[in-house]
Amino acid sequence: MEAVKKIVECVPNFSEGRDLEKIEKIVSPLRGKENVKLLNYEADKDYNRVVVTVMGEPQAVKEAVLEAIGVATEVIDLNNHEGQHSRMGATDVVPFIPIKNMSMTEAVELAKETAKEINERFNIPVFLYEKAASKPERENLAKIRKGQFEGMIEKLKEPEWKPDFGKREIHPTAGVTAVGARMPLVAYNIDLDTQNIEIANKISKAIRHSSGGFRYIKAGGVEIKERGITQVTMNITDYTKTSIYRVFETVKMEAKRYGVNVLGSEIIGLVPMEALVDTASYYLGLYGFSMDKIIETNLME
């Protein structure tokens, strides 16, 4: 009997969103590999960041991602990098998400293997985060990334911030990388028709968990100067507990306090269909609607 294939998703974030030639070089190792499929990559000039989504057999995905990290290490110099998104590494974060016939425990082991090899191959210090975290205070990526690239030299000297792999020294151009394992999340941005970043920050504070908002929301305000707007940018870390529509409606409600309108929103990378079904049900007032009523679901094995 043929062995059941395990499928993992990996969503590495690289700190380059403007130079298309560099982006194509970074993504190139993820193309044309056996048992690896490049699903999506989205670059943002304001964030100066590209989010890549690949899926496939665990070891094949790991090797392809390591190749891409090697290229990113060569072509990105964080000493000359600026953007709206927080970052501490050329390869900033590498999360693994178990998709099919794979447990979270296996995803954690894959994350640890990858982290170890990143350090050994490229001499980049690595922190483990989320489900792979070595201690509770490292589960939250924002805590690890605090200080960003510029502050990491001193941060790594602090007793509690010894990397999980590598020395207490940043890579001079590629910085520090975080590798983890997690469930699927929704990366979601909501556009506001104001250039006032204080308003975006106040709305973000109202919805994020750390400030008393929704349990599964991490959010912040960002200026998009090129478009003359601001964004409430967020990760919905458990869309089954905090729905997209609930966050969207709350941001609209909070924006009214400041005489601001919501222009629209965007999803970065891929999104589970279930998250959109839930939102469609709300806005259309559908009774008893579920994934079972989706044609594509019934075509799947």
**Proportion of β residues?**
15-25%
* Count of the domains: 2
Structural class: alpha+beta
Largest sheet: 7 strands, mixed
The CATH architecture of the largest domain is: 2-Layer Sandwich
Which quaternary structure do these chains form? single chain
Describe the global form.
globular
Count of beta strands: 11
CATH topology term of the largest domain: Formiminotransferase-cyclodeaminase, Chain B, domain 1
CATH superfamily of the largest domain: Formiminotransferase, N-terminal subdomain
User: Radius of gyration from the CA trace?
Assistant: 19 Å
Q: How far is the first residue's CA from the last residue's CA?
A: 17 Å
Written overview of the protein:
With 301 residues, this protein is α+β, with helices and mostly antiparallel strands. The protein has two domains: 7-181, Formiminotransferase-cyclodeaminase, Chain B, domain 1; 186-299, Formiminotransferase, C-terminal subdomain (Alpha-Beta Plaits). The chain has helices at residues 20-27, 58-75, 104-122, 141-145, 148-155, 197-207, 244-256, 273-284, 295-299; strands spanning 7-10, 13-14, 36-44, 49-56, 91-100, 126-130, 177-181, 186-192, 217-224, 229-236, 262-268. The strands form two sheets. Strands 1, 2, 3, 4, 5, 6 and 7 form a seven-stranded mixed β-sheet that branches. Strands 9-10-8-11 form a four-stranded antiparallel β-sheet, with helices on one face. A hairpin with a 4-residue loop joins β9 and β10. It is globular, with a radius of gyration of 19 Å. The model has no long low-confidence stretch (mean pLDDT 94).
